Amino acid sequence: MTITGKQLIGNTQSGNGADTFSGPVKNADGVAYSFHEATIEEIDLAIEKAQAAFPIYKRLSYNKRADFLDKIADEIIAIGPLLIETTVAETALPEWRLLAERDRTTNQLRFFANILREGSWLRAIIDLPSKNNPAKSDLRQMQIPLGVAGVFGASNFPYAFSVAGGDTASALAAGCPVVHKAHPAHPVTAEMVGQAVIKAAQQTGMPEGVFSMVQGVTYQTGLRIVGHPFVKAVAFTGSYQGGKALFDAANKREEPIPVYSEMGSFNPVFILPGILAEQGTELAKALAESNLLATGQYCTNPGVMVLPDSAPAGQFMDDFKSKVDNATGGTMLSDSIYRTYSKGTEKLVGHDGVEVYGKGTAEHDTAATPYMFKADADAFFANEALSEEYFGPASVHIVTKNDDEVYKIARNLKGQITATIWGNEQDLKDYAELRYILEEKVGRILVNGTPTGVEVANAMVHGGPFPATTNSATTSVGGTAIYRFTRPVCYQGFPDSSLPEALQNSNPLGILRLVDNDYNRNPIS
Fold first, then answer.
1. Dihedral, CA of residue 297, residue 480, residue 105 and residue 207, to nearest 10
2. What integer best gives the mean pLDDT of the chain?
């Protein structure tokens, strides 16, 4: 596989930009790969090709779309060990983690392929005229694709939330061509996967422009994608500043469009007294390992622990501290992430009412230092710094004096991706109110688990209220992620032969439909 350092625009490559950037990965001659910054003209061309592909792509059969997604998965696997080796060098993520993430990415593509073949995702709804009221309209509804989707790759998941990750997979499944903005933290990885996507498109007969990828380090690249009138939806995973800027730009357009920004979360954990007394040591081990995993660089990293002031809490804290003190923080995904983490933790180190309870070591001068901070509820309410996300191996432990403080902390939370409750059966009964409070604050509530794992499943919600995301009604993981890129259309009074197959009387697709308030797969006689 040849790395070009150019934009992948449909079936062509373009490197017209005078400005270039590079990363740590070097070619066979020992020279770092150089990448052209995308020009305005190149970005526009990618979007124009996507727009030209849209009316063709959206009319392809769902089976053909599914074959395309399956083929992308095949082509990613076909790159072989070179992909993993390259990404290790580019991100400092360990091989085991990247092997698992590659599997997750390809499985996710096949997951959406299966959703397309099964068909229920179309949400076909049919309301027929009745014998008692023949004047009633014949109404039929289904989902259709929005149009060209802009997708922004994430720094911390170079496969699963990047070029062929969940946003791209769900947009393509919905019938939307994708223009992908590669993350500059792993440009070589991005081009390798981008070439695989385009090869899959060619081999399955997709229209040119169904997928393009542009590279760049400046904000202008992203803003151009969001501002282009052909782009109808945008998905982003990254910082609050980046996600909010794209959201604001989209809402200033003459035609505002949805921007699904996933922007961060500190994922609070509420540890209740019964289970703390019974399993405190085990909980400390599980939560510390989750917090320190992959140098803490997960958006679902459990960053704030809330627990009652008690002897079992003291033991929990000491056990957690032992894990942190013995931890060695590794290289972070990028220099900017390292600088942000270091600046944030330095701010907490000198903060009133905050104690550095545990501290690990850094692998080298520019690696992350693991931290464990302790504070009481009063300090938490007084200091906003304690309720910020510290993207890395840091945790804040809030010790409460009474249940009122526990509920007050929960009620004062800003939007989060996850919240976790640890409790035994009696705890969960005694603190039943906690669930009602948290379900207004988060996208996913866990009981007796660690939030770092995000399973690709139909019931999964990976999202949450602002500022965790810019749209609390959606998810970026799981089957319903497809609905970020679709909208419902009602067909009234159509002759059967003029309807989309999903709505025709004979139900030629054999899909589950809601017909006169009854879910079935039957033809309409």
1. -130
2. 96
Residues 478 and 397 in one domain: no
Q: In angstroms, rounded to a whole number, what is the distance separating the alpha carbons of residues 228 and 470? A: 20
CA 177, 185, 367 angle in degrees (round to 5)?
150
337 and 381 in a common domain? yes
255 with 284, same domain: the answer is no
Instruction: For 388-445, write each residue's pLDDT tens digit.
Output: 888 999 999 999 999 999 999 999 999 999 999 999 999 999 999 999 999 999 999 9
If asked whether residues 368 and 301 sit together in one domain, one would say yes
How many helices and strands (H and E) does the chain possess? 15, 23
Give the 3-state DSSP-derived string for 482-496, with helices as H, strands as E and coil as C.
Answer: HHHHEEEEEEECCCH
Over residues 363-370, mean pLDDT: 90
Whole-model pTM: value is 0.95
**What's the average model confidence in pLDDT over 450-471?**
96
The tokens 């879910």 sit on which residue? 519
Range of the domain at 84: 32-263+473-483
Whether 230 and 317 share a structural domain = no
Q: Is 262 a catalytic residue?
A: yes
Cα dist from 295 to 270, 326, 333, 416, 493, whole Å: 22, 13, 9, 20, 58
* CA-based R_g, the chain, Å: 25
Q: What is the model's pLDDT at position 133?
A: 79
Residue 299 a catalytic site member: yes
Active-site choice (48, 262, 389, 405):
262
Q: Note whether 242 and 276 are same-domain residues.
A: no
Annotated catalytic residue, options 37, 208, 299, 405: 299
Which tens digits make up the pLDDT trace of 251-272? 999 999 999 999 989 999 999 9
Indicate the burial class of 203 (C-beta count within 10 angstroms; 0-12, 13-18, 19 or more): middle
Contact 53, 210 (CB under 8 A): yes
61 and 151 share a domain? yes
Residue 130: exposure state from Cβ atoms within 10 A (0-12, 13-18, ≥19): exposed
C-alpha triplet 57, 58, 61: angle, nearest 5°: 85
Residue 190: what are its φ and ψ, rounded to 5°? -60, -45
